[in-house]
Amino acid sequence: MNQWLDDRLHISRLNDKFLRKAFPVHHSFFLGEITLFSLIVLILTGILLALSYEPSNSLVVNTFDPGTVTKPNLVPAAYHSALKINAMPFGDMLRRVHHWMANIMVAAAVIHMMRIYFTGAFKKPREINWWIGMLLLIFSALTAVTGYILPYDNYAYNTVKVVYAITGSIPWVGEWVAQAAFAGKFPGAGIIPRIYGYHIMLLPGILLALTGAHMLLMIKQKHTQPQYAKRVAYKKIVGVPFMTQQTPIMLVLALLLTGLVMLFAAFIPVHPVEFFGPPSTTPINNIKPDWYLLWVFGALAIIPSFEWHLFGGLIGAEFVGALVLPGIVMALMFAVPMLDRTTEHQYYAENPTNHPVRLAAGVAFFAMMIVLSVAGYKPELISSGLLTTGNANTILWILTLLVPAVSYFAVIGIVRGIRALREADERESLAHAHADD
User: Fold this and answer.
1) HEC per residue, 196-228
2) Domains (ranges, CATH) in the chain?
3) SS3 category, 288
4) 13-38 confidence digits (pLDDT tens)
5) Bridge partners, 59 (sequence order)
6) Taking a C-beta distance cutoff of 8 angstroms, is the pair 10, 233 a contact?
7) What distance in Å separates the CA atoms of residue 135 and residue 412, rounded to the nearest whole number?
């Protein structure tokens, strides 16, 4: 049977080319696998949730609070199906696992990209995989945003209202783009079916295609090797084979991750649709996105209000704060491989302290992200008395510029101190060696 299959499917070639691939033995390399496992669990739980979800904002009678015959309590079908999922055995648990896995996937992807950046693993020949990873990060965030719109409670209603307004703020073509993206003017009858299509078909398809391309390139180009591999076998692949040793490790990690998330979900609730209620014209004060988009919200919160008319188009603070500034940040991240001057292939992960400018720039960047995320809590900072309405924007802008600058020069100073200690140790070791001779 094995010979019969091999004659037709060339399984032996598959084994030699892919299944014997050597994986580096280092804990940081599991971050990418955690991202992959999270995506798989998200797809599985999403399929189960989709079986009970009704993607429609048509009004139906709320069976949990039907009202009266003369005045029935009508709610959107999408919202009602979310209530029914919560009432199903393990339905709420399924929503929780789906929610927390989405957060873990984005968090693992962010930390994975940090490892790649700080160790120089984005260098030649892996620039394309860095760009694919950036696209994966962006589309993961978009998938998550469309996901928490689907329950279509009042929180989701206000969220999509903000997203529609941001899309509509694009000069010249904003209203057309917004209506094309959301199936008409907000709140139109086609908005939930359109978002549902994005969330369960378009965006997952893009994520799976990018993940497949990412993994194929990784297999083709090989991992960057940890530093210990240079001492063991210079410019040779050092690790454990995929099929016989890495696969059991991956399965144990996948089961452990899923078990921990289920335990986490059992005790920590997620977005309470019953609390917010069905969509209404009642606004929700201080609505905020999830943590990975909070920095965009912070930039939008502190940018001064302005309007600039140009050739019939309107360029305003909403467009600049929510689209232009984040676009510049993303462009800088895409440009990281092009800023590197290395001409030789990168075989080994670099020690971050050997590249102080890159290390300091990365720390400064994340310091800026943290300050902008804090700026997203501007109303809370004002209400607590830490800031006032008059000085909040000024102070937060100063911190946005000052904290990254201080972080940059602090890292440079620390690295110089580490280098001085290393050089002192080397001189002391040489002195001892000469004394022994």
Assistant:
1) HHHHHHHHHHHHHHHHHHHHHHHHHHCCCECHH
2) 17-272 (1.20.810.10)
3) coil
4) 766 666 677 777 777 888 989 999 99
5) 76
6) no
7) 30
What distances in angstroms separate CA 135 from CA 30, 213, 359, one per listed residue?
20, 11, 23
Comparing CA positions, the residue from 167, 154, 161 lying closest to residue 271 is: 154
Task: Tell me the C-alpha distance between 95 and 72, whole Å.
Answer: 28
Sign of CA dihedral 16, 17, 20, 22: positive
Other CB atoms within 10 A of residue 333 CB? 17
What is each CA distance from 382 to 94, 306, 373, in whole angstroms? 37, 22, 15
Neighbouring C-alpha atoms within 13 Å toward the C-beta of 265: 22
Among 73-82, 282-291, 426-435, where is mean pLDDT lowest?
426-435
Cα distance between residue 302 and residue 297, in whole Å: 9
The whole-angstrom separation of Cα 98 and Cα 91 is 11
Alpha carbon distance 254, 30 (integer Å): 10
pLDDT tens figures, 340-372: 877 788 888 898 999 999 999 999 999 999 999
Answer for the pair 101, 45: CB distance below 8 angstroms, yes or no. yes
Expressed in angstroms, the distance from the first to the final Cα of the chain is: 68
pLDDT for 16 equals: 65
Whole-angstrom distance, CA of residue 320 vs CA of residue 327: 9
Are 408 and 361 within 8 A, CB to CB?
A: yes
Q: What integer pLDDT is reported at residue 27 of this predicted model? A: 78
Cis peptide before 55 (omega within 30 of 0): no
Q: Do 177 and 167 meet the contact criterion of CB atoms below 8 Å apart?
A: yes
Rounded Cα–Cα distance for residues 36 and 130 (Å)? 16
How far, in Å, are 60, 181, 190, 206, 335 from residue 175 at the CA level?
30, 10, 16, 25, 30
User: Considering only 181-190, 338-347, 378-387, which range has the smallest mean pLDDT?
Assistant: 338-347
Which band of pLDDT confidence, cut at 50, 70 and 90, is reported for residue 305? confident
As a whole-number percent, the residues of the chain with pLDDT over 70 amount to: 97
CB 226 within 8 A of CB 239: no
DSSP state of 386: S
* Residue 183: both structure tokens together: 């199936």
Helices (H), 67-151: 77-87, 91-118, 127-147
Residue pair 328/319 in contact by the 8 Å Cβ criterion: no
In sequence order, the β-bridge partners of residue 75 are 60
Residue with tokens 């988009």: 293
Q: How far apart are CA 385 and CA 370, in angstroms?
A: 21
